[in-house]
Amino acid sequence: MSHVSSIPGGLRAGLNVIIRGQVPADTDDRFIIDFQTGDETGDEAAQNIAFHSSLYVNSGLIVRNSKIDGSWGTSDDSYILNVKAGQQFLINIFVKSDVYSVAINNETLYEFAHRVPLAQTDHLHVHANCIVDSVIFKYTETVDTRILNTTTEYSYSNA
Q1: Fewer CB near the terminus (10 Å): N or C of the chain?
Q2: How would you label 101-131 residue by residue, b for 16+ Cβ within 10 Å and e otherwise?
């Protein structure tokens, strides 16, 4: 199943995106997480993809990349995924000023440097072989830790 949602307020440092879902038991391939420009979902869509993460369930491979003006950049690959078919997952993506920091099932696995300005990215697309149960967009802004720390949370749920 595919999940597309607009990112409330757009992508920005301090945003924490929490994706809960599951990998169907009969899956033998991958699922994909994209932070992208626009809500188009076709493979040939011309939008920029600021952060693309392909998670290969059987091999454990995670491929990170970005697509700028229709062209893919150089991928960053590693065999660190510990999610199996038939399992639920929790993916936490924290947007920092210079990188995306990604934890899967409460284990921080990798960082990916920004290649597209954050302000240009306004949609989340989770697709391929997974079922998305819920997505939470949680933004925390610290003006001065002694005075104010505000959190705004938006949730999308299949339930």
Answers
A1: C
A2: bbebeeeeebebebebebebbbbbbbbebbb
Q: What is the DSSP letter of 158?
A: -
Judge whether 37 and 47 are in contact, CB under 8 Å. yes
* Distance from C-alpha of 75 to C-alpha of 151, rounded to nearest angstrom: 33
Domains of the chain: 3-141 (2.60.120.200)
Global confidence as pTM: 0.89
